[in-house]
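Retro notes, item 3 of 5
We never archived the inputs for the adenosine-5'-diphosphate complex last cycle. Fixing that now. Sequence and ligand:
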Amino acid sequence: RIVVFGSLNADLSVQLPELPQAGQTVLGSGLFRSPGGKGANQAVAAAHATQRRGLPAAVRMVGRVGADDEGQLLRESLAAAGVDDSGVQIDREAPTGVALILVDDAGDNMIAVAPGANLTVGEADVAGAVAGLRPGDVVVCQLEVPVPAIRQLVRSARAVGARTVCNAAPAAALDPELLASLTVLVVNETEARHSLGLSVTTPPQAAQAAASAGCAVVVTLGSRGAVYATPDGDAGACPAPSVEAVDTVGAGDAFVGAFAVALTAGDGVAEAVTAGVAAGATAVTQLGARYYPHPPDPKSGDER
Ligand code: ADP
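Structure as it came back at the time:
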């Protein structure tokens, strides 16, 4: 099974003709409210990928929301997507995280996040995430919750023989010990520079990154797809299909969800990258961080 450990945010999006410069005001269209957060988006992406592939694997989300409407909305959206939300705790002290998202006509975006309850994720949540893990399970995390919790999670997951996929987003430097204890690091180009200190756009550069990090490295390259390498020297590239990009928010999350499901299904890194690239390309064709054209169960609907 898959456990996604990470953030839940209420996304507030406005579409604009162009992104504002500092000090500038730009008038856009109406406000679009949707459930988001890298963790929750990846859990939903994984649930859809699981159902699309007809796999029995269950997806469980572990994280924190506030005792407010947004928190309720987030939990409902997870349940509607078929994600087990029993690991999502309601924090009485902090509000649900909020992301303010600006998207321009070219599909580029700017995002500001007020993390709220995501910052209170800690030891108790790690214990909840690791409970019941079995060898071969896949644990997915990102960096929108405190890094000490991530470190603890990766260590505990590894101790029971589970595999770990860390999407090091938003961009941050990662210590060598954490990198070496991961199964797979998934980053975009910018995040690769921060987490690995390397520019990675080709398979040989990915191979160099994997050798120095001590884990498999996957770097997503937007419309150019992704490159990957494993520490034992397997490296390659997967181009993305040509699609009309409307909104790139959530492309990386769709990639990670589908990638993790492929690993659970027994795929190697190369095959899992192919699954991730296909899911990412689909995600950019519509507005919203969670877009799935064929919901497996019409009754569950789409949470947008
Ligand atoms: P992030 O959203 O984390 O910055 P990327 O922009 O690299 O990540 O996108 C993740 C994946 O989504 C890519 O590997 C690719 O498969 C897909 N993708 C993103 N943008 C496009 C695009 N313009 N056309 C086709 N696929 C895309």
